[in-house]
Fold each of these.
Amino acid sequence: MNQRSAGKDIVSSFIFITIGAVLAAFSLEEFLVPNHIYDGGVTGVAMIVAHFTPAKLGYMVALFNLPFVILAWKRLGHVFVMKFFYAIALFSTMTVVFEPLENATNDIILAVTFGGVLLGTGVGLVLRGGGCLDGTETVAVILNRVFSVSIGQTVLICNIVIYAVAGYFFGIERGMYSLLMYFITSKVIDIVEIGMDSTKSVMIITDDGAGLAQRIFEDLGRTVTFLRGKGLVSSEGKDILYCVVTRAEIYDLKRIIEEEPGSTFTTISEVSEIVGNHIKSSEVME
């Protein structure tokens, strides 16, 4: 990938992150917070704590995510951390900016629906840009890479605990509304990010399979399966690489493929279930 293409890719990723962070902050302050509907993850914890303190929610979100930024710096690479830090900083700032504005609605159903759609769109755009808006997902990515623990399951378990706490403090109905909003948000994230929350199978047809496989292993800790094939039109043999990755690794995988020299053809498909050992290396995380 040449410098011009790399520059365009960086600019577009930050545009996605910027729009997504602003939308998420708007949803939080104009729909969710006024109606006591709580997000999941670190943001949800910050919302609960902010309810009992005079501190602004935006400051609490930034403070609670700071340890996860440091953790990501040590474990997930500098590029990801740079985008993570930018997304959190902008998200927190815009939350403070939107706080004085008049509420978009006081209707609980409208708040759950439109708040969930806007939040899901915002988070999906941030993920599409290769960033992250919540420290919980950072921990989930690390656990997935080291122990092959499902990202979706890790986040879901954390959120269920948070919603149970919200239900205890603010009433079971608020907890149920928050959980409903979470499911709406999750579905919208899937649509915006093109199914990024599920596991993907990737098949890459390339001229230099060894070099590309080594990059995937070094950067993502993923091993690949080698096949050998030949096209109908071209008489030259091709390397076919097959691997399984998570939603958080799709962006980096595309970047690796674009940076590698030679012609490649890639297909990315949904994986509904994995049976057997899913081999990966944890050395890349050290």
Amino acid sequence: MMRVHCAILACIVLASSADVRAHGLAAAFVSIETADDHEADVLIKLPRVEGNTPGLSVRFADGCEELTAPTKITRNDGVIERWAIRCERPLTGMEIGLLGFNTILGEALVEFRSPNTHGWSTVVRRGLPTTRLGALSSPGLDSNAGYLPLGIEHILSGFDHVFFVLALLLIVWRTRSPYGRRAVFKTMLATITAFTVGHSVTLAAATLGLVRLAPAPTELVIALSVLLLAVELARDDRSTLTMRFPWIVALAFGLLHGFGFAGALAEIGLPPEGIAAPLLLFNLGVEVGQIIIVLVAASAIGVASSIAGRRHLVAGRGSFFDRAIIYGIGTLTAYWCFERSLGWILG
């Protein structure tokens, strides 16, 4: 009966997977640059998502008119639109709105440059699609601070990264819990640190243009990394490298996940000058999101184990909850592997 329940759950996950994206909400990049606070060059960079490019437009205040018609440049990674405007009132302090957000395109990084603000940026989201250009940030915040929440949101809404961290946590809990919570904490700290080092190295290298990997095979291998951990959990063979040394696997696959993070950062866009701060803040956001995943998952495991009165309710081989998670992750990532393989082959 246990296997029947797990199979049913797997089918439900597979049936709903068309609406569940491996990566979170896609992000656009909007740049508004003015020399006199009245005439400005506007640029929108839209990412390509699953072969399609979502639409986005900027709504300026009354009294603004286009000086040039929008020009569109289509690239492999998306579309770039440029045009010029002139406004009767100053652009600094003007409220603008972004139209076109949906379940796929959920946010945009807006950058504004003027004689008064030099470099200013903020993140505009679907729930509140307006911002005031050049609005003062909280004291002490860098103008690139918007990259921090983008990093957090990318890993929290990217289910492949979430599942990878969750599977690592389950492996550590399953193999180290018999030796006490201190052993679990020490191994989890080493594993997450290894994953952090791995993806930080390749994120920086790819963003700086030192190393490049094609997006399609990279995304496929990321999905395969999650599937591997799900298979290891289902087999429960404590003698494998993954079970004995999870930090080695975390480091190796962390290098691959870093290329995925770099791809997301490239879609968002970086300022033309000074990419060090945005890169650092985005990576810091990824780390914050990663810590949130670990804390929430570990708390859920601890609470479930306490309620049941036995340590291995969640991490034990025979528990329904444990198998439901493993089969769910495995089924969904197998679907992503199939989907990404087809996308790579068909171009």
